[in-house]
Amino acid sequence: MLAVTKKNIVSMLSHSGASPDTSQSLADKIVKALPDSMTEKSLCDYVAATAQSEEHGMLAGNIVMTYLHVRSKPFTETMLKLPLSPAFQEKIKRLQLDEHLMLQNDFTYDLFALRTLQKGYLLSANGVTERPQHMLMRVAASLHDDKESILRCYRALSNKQYTHATPTLYNSGCQKGQLASCFLGVMQDDSILGIFNTIRQCALISKGAGGIGLSISNIRAKGSVIQSAMGESSGIVPMLRVFNETARYVDQGRRRKGAFAVFLEPWHRDIQSFLDLRRNTGDENAKARDLFTALWVPDLFMERVEKDQDWTLFCPTEINLQDVHSEEFNASYIEAEKTGGVKIRARKLWEQILRTQIETGTPYIMFKDQINRTSNQSNLGTIKGSNLCAEIALFTSPEEIAVCTLASVALPRFVTHVFQFEQFGKAVEEVVKNLDRVIDTTFYPQPEARRSNLRHRPLGIGVQGLSDVFQKLNVPYDSEEALDLDAEIFETMYFHALKASVELAKQHGPYESFAGSPASRGILQFDHYGITPTRYDWAKMKQDIMTHGLRNSQLLALMPTASSAQLLGNSEGTDPRTSNMYTRRVLSGEFVVTNRYLKQKVDNWQQVKRVMEKHSGSVQNAPVSDETKKVFKTVWEISQKWVIDHAARRQPFVCQSQSMNLFLAEPTVNKVSAMLFYAWKKKLKTGMYYLRSQPKLQAVQCDACSA
Prior knowledge:
Number of helices: 28
Shape: globular
Oligomer: single chain
Helix content: 40-55%
Number of strands: 21
Mean pLDDT: 93
């Protein structure tokens, strides 16, 4: 027990970096409300909570970090005591990396980031606990063998230029370290054996913290004849309930629930039952609320809705439409309509989709034909589905489970008074090299996943903090200047990712299925959109690719970054901020979090804060300049046309897709329909990830996201 005295508390605050005035002020508040003695940890947590409540978030983090540092061991000793791979531990003993750790960078995490790290990322066992820098060095040392590469990777992570996705941070160095984030599969076969083999695959992937996307459009509809049993099929709903319980049971070591997204094409005869899986009304025996539903939408359906024509539903036993797209899909579909199927008005089904989205936020909408027309994997076959967060677009088959390893670049780190494109480009190249190593070092839970990933070597590089960039530069999100900057950032990102992949191909050879791909013929992502970018020498880049090949079939995929953005203190992904003030709950209490960029730009903060408290984090009624009101609009105050326009400007440089949320405070069928049609006509691949409604003070989180 530790005596609760002002002297002890001032000492604790001072050692954590507080100024003398702050130490005295906080100590006065703390000693009044506490008993005479407490455990040191309890006192530390309470002092940190008080500092956070007084808007000293970094100080609060430093208090807890100081306590952690005092009670933790040096890096090598920690690694040798944790239950890690013996081969990894031998590498750590040989390399002696302790002197290279930048331990001072542990004190750049605020309280919320640190609590997130402690809850789910920092390993603890056998009387030792990691520090954040230990975790980052563990990741770097698990990816590389030579010391120079390890230190280069570590420094980029430590300086918060980028972060790997959750599974890589969780599992690096472990005996069966599954480092990849996303796994995409297709039902192996429309049979009991095929279905339960697929369930087994999903369970083993989920065990290692992988998020799963599964295409089920080849499974027969309810009422279809099962000749071998002389009976009728129960359809997809009872089957999906088994997947639902699998996701709940295989809960990633009790760290978080398993996460499965299920993709269905809207011509499937069970589509209406599928839409009801997550709704709040109806038969509970027909629900699967822990699954994430998604639609893989062909252009023909959108055209029929637009023209108010009929739409025909089929059972996959009647016709195979899953393996064709675009003109071939249209021809097969129209021919099949002549002799079979169940007619329904296209707009009736569309309205059911929209009402389900308004009620539940899902299904996700992804445009099948646009994804397949623009894919660098088009030489492999038709892409049949996506992943948990609707940004991965990779080929799958019964023999191949597509895998994608993710990382996100922290865009605000490259902003001074302007955006530093050269530094950003170099960072992207480093990320490509590090992510490519994940492919060779990760544990594969299934041979089909290993086969796919080593053949095609796709990467998913995303970003976080795009909204922060605009706000740091005083650029309104809903402006042409922001659109232009957005496009320049992603042209730079795509160029340097390709550059690094070419360099890797020179060293190790191109990925196995490179021959015949669009890139092998000099066709890059923006060529599918009919634009000619000019910031870089694209003609030379195309020549280099055709000469040397690429090491990776896909490179960019813009994920939500819900957890990792919290770790690095940035806004999520490419979304505008939902609020300039919101509440966040941690173990030690619930606190108000404010936009630090806004706080830096106003000199009457307390007045502004009081107004925001009354208006859900909005500054539109606050005593600030008109420019500040424009720059710090929340997503609820921005027309969603701008959100889609931003996505459309960057899409020609994003070879996979984007987790694009749409936000409507009061959604209606007409409003949501208009947004989705606008996204489709803008040639986006993802029409909508989640539909977000009912603005709240608390930031929207996606606990299932693996990024």
